[in-house]
Specification:
Layout (H helix, E strand, L loop, with lengths): L2 H10 L14 E6 L5 H16 L3 E6 L4 H14 L3 E4 L8 H9 L4 E4 L12 E5 L1 H16 L4 E7 L5 H14 L5 E8 L4 H14 L8 E4 L2 H13 L9 E6 L2 H8 L5 E4 L5 H14 L6 E4 L3 E3 L4 H8 L5
Parallel strand pairs: 1-2, 1-3, 3-4, 4-5, 5-11, 6-7, 6-8, 8-9, 9-10
Antiparallel strand pairs: 10-12
The structure holds beta-D-fucofuranose (GYE).
Family: Belongs to the bacterial solute-binding protein 2 family.
Subcellular location: Cell envelope
Protein name: ABC transporter substrate-binding protein
């Protein structure tokens, strides 16, 4: 059943009888950024599982980290007349035109894990964490842990221009305000990948007296932190003690590092953004109920005190 009919009923509202067509008739196009990180690979796995659970036909497009490939995929989904589109927008800008085309085609768009700088009328809802809050939690942990002691911090940022890179930086800096013992001495993108995270951390270590001037690393995701941990070890230093390591995602590998004393804290990001997205879509299809513009997922701090090995065992099967 064409989702458009349900949509036009939704806009008319009164006097519309929504057919009891099940989600099984729904086709959803999903434009995913690419592999990028362990977290993102898990998001892809979980999205496919959630679609299967609901009998939804999921058309998956991997953009190999390129926005132009995402825009191409969205145009192809529109041409195919899918019932809805999910997109994890690699960067925040440049979406108005293609989102306008989806709106003209009456195809609802749901953003997953990142937001866009576009009019909110151009998408149905965004299922994301509070990215500023995540950076704030990481910053507050470092403030508490250093307890006034002087600490030079290096920062591995996510993909330049992406909403998590912008907001996680903002939240972290807000937490450090008023704590002059903490100074961000180097900050550069590691593009959310392990490889780049290691590479950039190597340059930080070289630039900062072999790492002796560095007291802490804040990485916008665990994958960059895991790459950086490798670089710190290769520089002959102990990650987790010589250089504190705090990051975001709570993927299994960071708990392995924590259990080995090589990482200190992470802020959890669920890979299951698609579940709430599919539910919002089904509710809209069934009775025209518009979801809020933001469906927020939880953010929880984990430290070495949270039995990391146990958490690793529990998490490692969940799509990662
Ligand atoms: O933290 C990272 C992924 O968009 C919030 O993207 C997401 C981030 C996540 O590559 O691991």
């Amino acid at each position: 059943m064409k989702f458009v009919k349900a949509l036009s009923c939704a806009t008319v509202l009164a006097g519309c009888v929504f057919s009891s067509v099940s989600a099984a008739d729904m086709t959803v196009g999903f434009s995913q950024i690419g592999s990028e990180s362990g977290w993102r690979a898990a998001e892809t796995t979980v999205t496919k599982q959630e679609a299967e659970k609901r009998g939804i036909d999921l058309k998956f497009a991997d953009a190999q980290q390129k926005q132009e490939n995402q825009i191409k995929a969205l145009r192809s989904f529109i041409a195919q007349g899918v019932d809805a589109i999910f997109v994890a927008p690699v960067v925040a800008t440049g979406w108005d035109e293609v989102l306008g085309e989806a709106k003209d085609a009456e195809i609802p768009v749901i953003l997953l894990d990142r937001t866009v700088d576009a009019d909110k009328s151009l998408y149905m809802t965004a299922v994301t964490s509070d990215l500023v809050h995540e950076g704030n939690v990481a910053g507050k942990w470092l403030v508490d842990t250093t307890a006034g002691k002087p600490c030079n911090v290096v920062e591995l940022q996510g993909t330049t221009g992406s909403s998590p890179a912008i907001d996680r930086k903002k939240g972290f800096e807000e937490a450090l305000k008023g704590h002059d013992n903490l100074k961000i001495v180097r900050s550069q993108t590691g593009d959310f990948t392990r490889t780049k995270g290691k590479e950039v951390m190597e340059s930080f270590l070289k630039a900062e007296n072999g790492g002796k001037n560095i007291c802490a690393l804040y990485a916008h995701n665990d994958d960059m932190a895991v790459g950086a941990i490798q670089a710190i070890k290769e520089a002959g230093l102990k990650p987790g003690t010589d250089i504190l390591v705090v990051s975001i995602d709570a993927v299994p590998d960071i708990f392995q590092a924590m259990a080995a004393g090589e990482a200190n804290a992470t802020v959890e990001l669920t890979p299951n953004m698609a579940g709430p997205a599919f539910d919002a879509l089904a509710a809209f299809k069934k009775d025209g109920k518009e979801p809020p513009k933001w469906i927020q997922t939880e953010s929880k701090l984990y430290t070495q005190a949270d039995e990391p090995q146990k958490v690793y065992e529990a998490k490692k099967g969940l799509g990662y």
